[in-house]
Design goal:
The chain is an all-alpha fold and 357 residues long. It folds into two domains: 133 residues, no CATH class; 174 residues, Farnesyl Diphosphate Synthase, CATH 1.10.600. The chain has 15 helices and no strands. The N terminus is likely disordered. GO terms for molecular function: geranylgeranyl diphosphate synthase activity; squalene synthase [NAD(P)H] activity. This is Phytoene/squalene synthase family protein. InterPro entries: Isoprenoid_synthase_dom_sf, Squ/phyt_synthse, Squalene/phytoene_synthase_CS, Trans_IPPS_bact-type, Trans_IPPS_HH. Its EC number is 2.5.1.-.
Length: 357
């Protein structure tokens, strides 16, 4: 989009496939109306507001239409992730259905159709908002299919062997989100054709996913029997899977009921694990950097929300450190005071008018 009024688009971008920006109401669905669409966006907003606090706090500073599009594509990604977390390998048919719906959406440009139409998409409350956002901002099929592919690897999960495998996994499940969001956030959508730029956006998603993994080691073991830390790193640091399982199940009975450890309880995190954890945190930190070289390519209204999302997520690493690297018996969050401080610092530097409420 141009730097001018939100909703304008330049000629170069509009001439590229899938880069057009029809209005939200431009549907061929006869059963789609304005009220339904408003309700659908409200559903997407609620999903993001309750399940992605850092993203919600960061991106709510966008102009309304861009922000609501972000909530809609987040709902798609959240759905793909949730069906796998809840169903494991039994979720594969749902992912197949979701993929058919996405492919049909791009085949006819109007929504789920074709030889094998989806039976579930119309019943998902966020689906009309999602298809509207895809049409308006030219969200790319590649990123959506990458997301589904990544979730398939979780549905049929095998422990990750190497750091390269970890990066590839994170590229699919989270780097894809970078690709999905670019058309909504970018200043000139011709940049979608710039692969260096797109890879920088992918790397930001990869960094966030590694941060997620570092925060949720214990939860992933307890609830899903998954270890995302690469086997070669565990071996090089002398750590067994069984040792991680032991740490994850320590004091697990009260884990879900608390955000602070039991009075007097301080799990002993082995030094070799802390060294490994910091090695992966350093990798994540390096991947948080490349997008910054392209900040001027994002729409002016999107730059501060994007920086904020990155900084809030990266701050989770420090929250884990502040709690003695206990990513086994608790989920570490940044405090509201920390979030306010981060956002305020960005606002002052960029002279932004919005703030956390």
């Amino acid at each position: 989009m141009s730097e001018g009024q939100d909703g304008s688009h330049d000629a170069t971008a509009s001439q590229s496939k899938n880069l057009g920006t029809p209005a939200f109401g431009d549907f061929s669905h006869s059963d789609t109306n304005v009220v339904d669409l408003e309700q659908s966006f409200a559903s997407a907003l609620e999903i993001m507001k309750t399940q992605a606090v850092s993203f919600y706090q960061a991106f709510k500073g966008l102009p309304k239409e861009r922000f609501m599009a972000v909530t809609a594509v987040y709902a798609f990604c959240r759905y793909a992730d949730d069906v796998v977390d809840e169903g494991g390998s039994s979720a594969l048919p749902q992912l197949d259905d979701l993929e058919r719906s996405i492919r049909a959406l791009f085949e006819d440009g109007t929504g789920p159709a074709g030889d094998a139409p989806s039976t579930f998409a119309p019943t998902l409350p966020w689906w009309p908002a999602f298809t509207a956002s895809v049409h308006r901002y030219g969200v790319q099929e590649r990123g959506l299919l990458m997301q589904i592919q990544g979730q398939r690897s979780d549905a049929d999960f095998h422990d990750i062997e190497s750091t390269d495998d970890l990066i590839e996994y994170a590229r699919l499940v989270a780097g894809s989100v970078g690709r999905i969001l670019v058309p909504i956030l970018v200043r000139d959508r011709a940049m979608i054709e710039n692969e260096d730029f797109m890879q920088a956006c992918e790397k930001l998603g990869i960094a966030m996913q590694i941060t997620n993994i570092l925060r949720d080691v214990g939860e992933d073991i307890r609830e899903r029997d998954r270890v995302y830390i690469p086997r070669d790193l565990l071996k090089s640091h002398g750590i067994s899977r069984e040792a991680l399982q032991g740490l994850a199940h320590a004091d697990a009975a009260s884990f879900k009921e608390r955000t602070e450890p039991r009075q007097g309880y301080a799990p002993s995190i082995p030094r070799n694990f802390i060294v490994l954890w910091e090695q992966l945190a350093t990798l994540a930190d390096s991947l948080y950097l490349p997008y910054q070289h392209y900040l001027d390519q994002f729409h002016a209204s999107a730059r501060i929300p994007l920086i904020t999302a990155a900084k809030l997520y990266q701050a989770i690493e420090q929250a884990v450190r502040d709690h003695g690297h206990d990513c086994f018996t608790r989920r570490c969050y940044t405090s509201k005071a920390t979030r306010i401080r981060i956002v305020t610092e960005i606002q002052l530097r960029e002279k932004a008018p919005w703030k956390i409420s």
